Amino acid sequence: xxxxxxxxxxxxxxxxxxxxxxxxxxxxxxxxxxxxxxxxxxxxxxxxxxxxxxxxxxxxxxxxxxxxxxxxxxxxxxxxxxxxxxxxxxxxxxxxxxxxxxxxxxxxxxxxxxxxxxxxxxxxxxxxxxxxxxxxxxxxxxxxxxxxxxxxxxxxxxxxxxxxxxxxxxxxxxxxxxxxxxxxxxxxxxxxxxxxxxxxxxxxxxxxxxxxxxxxxxxxxxxxxxxxxxxxxxxxxx
Length: 238
Hints:
Elements: E1 5-11, H1 18-29, E2 36-43, H2 49-57, E3 61-66, H3 72-82, E4 87-91, H4 102-107, E5 114-118, E6 125-128, H5 132-148, E7 160-164, H6 165-171, H7 182-192, E8 197-201, E9 203-205, H8 214-233
Parallel strand pairs: 1-2, 1-4, 2-3, 5-8, 6-9
Antiparallel strand pairs: 4-7, 5-7
């Protein structure tokens, strides 16, 4: 029997794209042969994102709301707690990774507990790259995480990941880091728990109007990586 799956979309002020993104997802998944439901987690939007999402979803899912903007990690964790299906997947609202990759990612859960999209494996493509500075900072971050924690993982922040729901409930419980590094903490927990992680090469396109404040994100991420090293590797007392 084919496992059912939930798609979780965290969204903060995504009125410009949310209706089109949901429509694209529904088109991509309608012939998958799998039961899908979609949860949009509205993270304190002030532009009508929730109302637009509800209209676009119809009977294929529902919207959860947080009273204020608490960040992507918190929004995804809220969606994970509400998941009622065997498997789940999350994606950014801008669909930087095409929904054509959603079903291939989920199918890999037959042989893995966690599946992550990767922009750095053979077969992956950058359809539209980030500006040079942002791309360089991202590459430095990736190599730092590989050196400190997870040398076998090729991508950490690509916005598409799939999980068996039972494992996701545990991995997202009481996260220590809720900034850029939450993906690292999730994968570190999965690795230390002995879960099988599968990596899927994808095509990825940068969204030009990214709201990430680069300088504050860099400093925050460095502090969070140090915190993760203390918590999971006990490095701070050596």
